[in-house]
């Protein structure tokens, strides 16, 4: 665990929201179990950034937006293959709120993603077209924060996409796996771990 006096490091807390926790619309098994550890990591870091999935109703990533499609299938959109999800993290709903136990008020920045109706956004850094930025990289660079620790939901989607982009952008990147949980859709968890290791992401058990 990083010491609280590491002033050049940011903790990035990915999507610890009600819809990704048990009882939510896109629940990740054990998603709520990570909250106490995430809170300890928040307390141990001088700089904290949160991401928040923030979809408009009828988002293009929702299976319900495509006739005849079911959740967890996939379709081709203008920017590539898109997994279709149950409606989740809709703007202004309880499902989009942070988990009630998350000590999130220390966050210096909240990055909302997925708010463009026609494109999904897993990564904290880019939309799923891999080129439209969220602005997080510029923020971190201007704040002098080249070292990142990532935690949250889900390991094999938003956490992994964020970690891979962080490495691609030149940030020293660590993922605390104990403070993450995965969806593991068709072997996606092992694939994500392998890809992160290959990219130079430090995976802490």
From TrEMBL:
Molecular function per GO: nicotinamidase activity
Family annotation (Gene3D superfamilies): Isochorismatase-like (3.40.50.850)
Its EC number(s): 3.5.1.19
SUPFAM superfamilies: Isochorismatase-like hydrolases
Matches recorded under CDD domains: nicotinamidase
Alphabetic keyword roster: Hydrolase, Metal-binding, Pyridine nucleotide biosynthesis
The protein's name in its UniProt record: nicotinamidase
């Amino acid at each position: 665990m990083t010491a609280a006096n590491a002033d050049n490091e940011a903790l990035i807390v990915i999507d610890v929201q009600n819809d990704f926790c048990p009882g939510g619309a896109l629940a990740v098994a054990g998603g709520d179990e990570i909250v106490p550890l995430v809170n300890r990591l928040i307390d141990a870091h001088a700089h904290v950034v949160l991401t928040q999935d923030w979809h408009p109703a009828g988002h293009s990533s929702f299976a319900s937006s495509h006739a005849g499609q079911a959740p967890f299938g996939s379709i081709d959109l203008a920017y590539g293959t898109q997994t279709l999800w149950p409606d989740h993290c809709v703007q202004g709903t309880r499902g989009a709120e942070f988990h009630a136990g998350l000590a999130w008020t220390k966050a210096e920045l909240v990055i909302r993603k997925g708010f463009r109706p026609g494109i999904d956004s897993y990564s904290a850094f880019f939309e799923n077209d891999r080129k439209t930025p969220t602005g997080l990289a510029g923020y971190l660079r201007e704040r002098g924060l080249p070292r990142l620790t990532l935690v949250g939901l889900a390991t094999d989607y938003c956490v992994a996409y964020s970690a891979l982009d962080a490495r691609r952008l030149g940030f020293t990147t660590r993922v605390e796996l104990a403070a993450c949980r995965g969806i593991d859709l068709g072997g996606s968890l092992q694939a994500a771990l392998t890809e992160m290791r290959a990219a130079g992401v430090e995976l802490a058990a």
